[in-house]
Amino acid sequence: MAIAALVIAGVAGAAPLPPALQQAVARGAHIFNDDSFGSHVKPVPDAASAFAALDGAPHGGPRFMTCAACHIQGGLVRGRLPDGRRIASLRNAAAVFPRYSVKSHRVMTLEAQIRHCVRDGIVGRAPAYGSSTMVDLVSYLKSIAAGQRIAIGGPTH
Question: Which of 56, 95, 116, 118 is most buried (CB neighbours < 10 A)?
């Protein structure tokens, strides 16, 4: 089953998502997997091989960086940065933001973290706050966090 279909299905026992929200989640999954945000950075070979695992569909050859280059399998499992360091899954990211960033010495919202990742990780143009791209990405991340315990400031897993 495709990642977008998994997250659109929602939490067992919960009411189905309204069609407009289902569409936002699906667009967010597409952006997460395929949008380079104008970056011309190619993923490292290990990250590029992760593209083949997305939704079980092969993607031809190296592409430019996307969220999925580090956050493999739609962010549902632990990922890896280009330098090889392991990173937490995004399964509960929407449940732990806002959180304090020791590195930047400020409270970071989920939207600020997305902008940081796009700007500094993907080396692309970060989506504007409130833009349709940001709304769709946040919708996707919140959908994969459905059912997770809210733990503002807590760790991701």
Answer: 118
